[in-house]
Amino acid sequence: MAQAAVARENAEEATEVALQTRIKAGATLEDISEMTPRYRDVLVATMAIAADLEIMTLPLDFDAIAFAPSINDRIAIASALQDEMGHAQVMFRMLEDFGFDSYHQVFERDPKNFKTFFLLEFGNLSPIDVGLGHLVGDQAGYITTCDLEQNCSFGPYSRSLRKVNFEENFHVKRGEYMIRHYMQQGPEIRKRVQERMDFWFPLGAEWFGATDDVKSRTDQLHYKIRGNSNDQLRQIWLQRLVPFCEQVGLKVPAHFDSEKGIYVLDYQMPILLNLETMKWDFRTVTWPEKLAQWKKGGPLKLPGLSRMQTELWGQDLW
Amino acid sequence: MMKKVIDRQLELGGDKPEFYEVFARRDSAEPLTHIGSVEAPNEQLAEARAWFVYDHHTWREMCIVPLSAIVTITERDSKSKVKVV
Q1: Which of A18, A19, A274, B84 has the highest Cβ tally under 10 A?
Q2: CATH for B22
Q3: How close A130 gets to chain B, by Cα (Å)?
């Protein structure tokens, strides 16, 4: 009995080493049968979170449709949401092959069990937020999914992201377009954009998760599910966002460090958002404190998802 | 606000999912390519869903094939007959 268990463990270990060697050599996996249980778990967790994030955009931008300042804006938001639901469909379709029931996952699962990110868990207050959501949030998402498309060792996932990234690029461009527009509407509007950027910026910075000194060798990197670490992805985001903000006259708590040759935050992560005042407290806290805040989530998460699951929006929407 | 009532039989065709594979080409010079997959209880809904989800190009040609019609050759032992894309 014990011998059989040891033999089985050795065989599993050998399969694991063989898979890791193949991946390190640049191999692409095409089928579930090629995976070890550990690889499969990491991949499925990554895809399941990505699918949940796509779904969360629907309750997030519901209000945005209602208060869109023009019919063009309304069409643009509806179109972006159609894209996001298409992405969700692609991801849940892929998860079906791993034994998931998409219908259950979307419509019957307890909203508490959705894995969404803090950035998506606050309602938009005005069209300015919609622009910032695209500029800060879609940008962060786009950088994450581009990395997966370029590097993911599971071929079908990488290929499925071509369409996703093709469309996400438009969302980011629309954010830039909107914020450029609002920044040209005089000092009062510029001030409002700045106030909302103060709220959005740290949310975007923490989209990429804990810093590498805390979490550097994750299984995602180990198995080449993705190629860049949290800090590397955050750096790409800063490289794109900070110069744009400087160009349009928005202040953000980050700058280019010419000695290091990289963009750096003006504060030390992690920091907490005060959910009563909705203002960031820039004093550094511990990662367990930050994780607790993420876990608790923002005010939109549970009501937004349960609304998505239970309410018929049809007539009220248009 | 009206409450959503989802008829699983009508929307999904029951508990056993039916899949359709989506093929398309952008122009005459491009090969007809497998671009994705949708779940639907019948051809009409599959057509609508394929059109809705895969609208990132103005396709010159698009068609769907029921997954059940596909005969696997290299993927005989695989759990998924066709990879998602």
Answers
A1: B84
A2: 3.10.20
A3: 22
Helix H, strand E, coil C: the string for chain B is: CEECCCCHHHHHCCCCCCEEEEEEECCCCCCCEEEEEEECCCHHHHHHHHHHHCCCCCCCEEEEEEHHHCCCCCCCCCCCCCCCC
Q: Closest Cα partner for A178 from A200, A162, A156, A160?
A: A200
The answer to whether position B80 is within a domain reads no
A contacts of B37 (beta carbons < 8 Å): 93
- Residues belonging to chain A with any Cβ–Cβ distance to chain B shorter than 8 Å: 30-33, 82-83, 85-86, 89-90, 93-94, 96-97, 102-103, 107, 155-156, 159-160, 162-163, 166-167, 309-316
- Where do the domains of chain A lie? 37-317
Residue B55 falls inside a structural domain? yes
Residues of A in contact with B6 (CB under 8 A): 107
Write b or e for each residue in A19-29: b if 16 or more Cβ atoms lie within 10 A of its Cβ, otherwise e: bbeebeeeeeb
DSSP state of A252: -
Q: Is A210 helix (H, G, I), strand (E, B) or coil?
A: coil
User: A46 exposed, middle or buried (CB, 10 Å; 0-12, 13-18, 19+)?
Assistant: buried
Q: What is the CATH topology of the domain spanning A37-317?
A: Ferritin (1.20.1260)
Interface of B with A in 40-59 (CB under 8 A): 49, 52-56
| Per-residue pLDDT tens digits of chain A, which is 318 residues long | 577 777 777 888 888 889 999 999 999 999 998 999 999 999 999 999 999 999 999 999 988 988 899 999 999 999 999 999 999 999 999 999 899 998 899 999 999 999 999 999 999 999 999 999 999 999 999 999 999 999 999 999 999 999 999 999 999 999 999 999 999 999 999 999 999 999 999 999 999 999 999 976 688 998 999 999 999 999 999 999 999 999 999 999 999 999 999 999 999 999 999 999 999 999 999 999 999 999 999 999 999 999 888 877 666 655
Chain-chain contact of B84 with A103 (C-beta, under 8 angstroms): no
How many domains are there within chain B? 1
